[in-house]
Design a protein that fits this description.
The protein is mainly alpha-helical and 167 residues long. It folds into 2 domains: 12-115, no CATH class; 134-163, no CATH class. 57% of the residues lie in helices and 6% in strands. The protein contains 6 helices and 3 strands; from the N terminus they run ααααααβββ. The protein has helices at residues 2-11, 18-37, 39-45, 52-57, 62-74, 76-115; strands at residues 136-137, 143-146, 160-163. A 3-stranded mixed β-sheet has the order 1-3-2, with no helix packed on it. Helix 2 (18-37) packs across helix 3 (39-45) and helix 2 (18-37) crosses helix 6 (76-115).
């Protein structure tokens, strides 16, 4: 009689421990995202039990998961703690992936810049003003072009100066 009672109890669904439930929920949410963004997996997900492999990895089946989910949903505080920890782990995972993506983008940019050949045909040509159009200042024995910044510097008065127009 006792043996039949043990068999009846052992054949029913088992409650998944809090730590295992956290791991399973983490894996289930990752699997959901993978299915969401992979078209081939989305087509296969309609025809097979996608979470069964996750449950089996931890030694459970779908009935155990549903029974445990019912148990934890009946006590919202426990389920909330589990999902908070799962959310924290997912946030950390997202920040790691974002950092890796930023690093890959920088590498790609640097490689593009490194491999880029300069296009000299589109480079603006400098404007050259003929010397004849510059107003001249006559002075001593040297010739000099005057720039707008020369007023800040000491300019010798005994030289032949070209005054560059600031326009």
């Amino acid at each position: 009689m006792m043996l039949l009672l043990l068999l009846a109890v052992s054949c029913g669904p088992r409650r998944i421990s809090r730590d295992n439930m956290e791991e399973i929920m983490y894996q289930v949410l990752l699997q959901d995202q993978q299915i969401k963004y992979d078209h081939k997996l989305r087509l296969q997900a309609d025809t097979c039990l996608v979470y069964e492999a996750i449950f089996e990895e931890y030694g459970y089946d779908t009935d155990d998961f549903l029974y445990s989910l019912e148990y934890y949903l009946a006590e919202p505080a426990k389920f909330e703690k589990i999902m908070e920890r799962v959310g924290d782990r997912l946030d950390k995972e997202v920040s790691v992936v974002r950092a890796e993506v930023r690093q890959m983008q920088w590498r790609e940019r640097l490689l593009r810049i490194y491999n880029m050949q300069p296009d000299t045909s589109r480079r603006p040509q400098p404007r050259v003003r003929p010397v004849d159009t510059l107003p001249l200042r006559f002075g001593g024995d040297s010739l000099r072009v005057v720039t707008p910044w020369d007023s800040l510097l000491h300019v010798p008065q005994d030289s032949l100066l070209f005054v560059r127009d600031s326009l």
